[in-house]
């Protein structure tokens, strides 16, 4: 599967569409994805070669995914245009192919999906709304932002994460297809993210959600966006999320932290890619210090309780740690966990990687506690 830009209310294929069915978002229907459930037993994966030099502590299941990703032979993302980079294989493709190769059974989705276009400044963006099949609501509501450095990826690439949160929390999840760079420069993604949150607040009741129980979550660039949504909600005096889950978030501009140095050449994210993402999204290098990008420069007081998830083998590991410390210093309640032996992007790999299953359960428990 190649990365293609998601088209509004289009007939799109998700991570496990190759295995089961596609998602027709023009009507309410079941999703198809590789999200693990409690009854699913992960396959035993064994890597072919030795642990990579950049990740000697990598777990075998994680290494197997990385080996599969490397085996596609794609050109390094940072050498490509954004358009060509979006055609590269993704970690989701590697997971999908490993699932097929191991003849794994895909759990029956416990959510239905609905596609919705909403107006943003000068354009429209697409939302994918996941609703639990069980119960009649009102459900808690999570607004979720995918990763991709503000430049690549789409709702399909991160379908597993959004679906897992909906299923395990028993919540409606709105996954946001904010506009990407370089076609849409900073702060377009940030503004789109907040507009989607505002829409969720205003339409919660119509979605059968509880308007008093809304949280935000995101991975990587999406983790940055989720935190910014909380900051903007506070500043604009609209309803604050009750909780935020930030999964290996982009949180500061220094690319010489210990984790950046240790995992400079890691996969699927490395330092060169982060430089490339930054150049594609920002208008000038000065914007790297903007509080929207470098969250540690922002006023963090009064933000909701926060869960931060980090991966050991990840240039952004220290971003999450530093942000957690800054939030605590600002008086924010923070709970955080680091997962050893896994890389950036591990969170959505629960069917194959045990640490991803554990991280999803942790995030779900944190959200359920906040919604109570």
From TrEMBL:
It comes from Pedobacter vanadiisoli. Residues 142-347 form the Alpha/beta hydrolase fold-3 domain. PANTHER family: ALPHA_BETA HYDROLASE FOLD-3 DOMAIN-CONTAINING PROTEIN (PTHR23025:SF4), TRIACYLGLYCEROL LIPASE (PTHR23025). One of its GO terms (molecular function) is hydrolase activity. Gene3D superfamilies: alpha/beta hydrolase. Keywords: Hydrolase, Signal. This is Alpha/beta hydrolase. The lineage of its organism: Bacteria, Pseudomonadati, Bacteroidota, Sphingobacteriia, Sphingobacteriales. Residues 1-21 form the signal peptide. It comes from the Bacteria. InterPro entries: AB_hydrolase_3 (IPR013094), AB_hydrolase_fold (IPR029058). Pfam families: Abhydrolase_3 (PF07859).
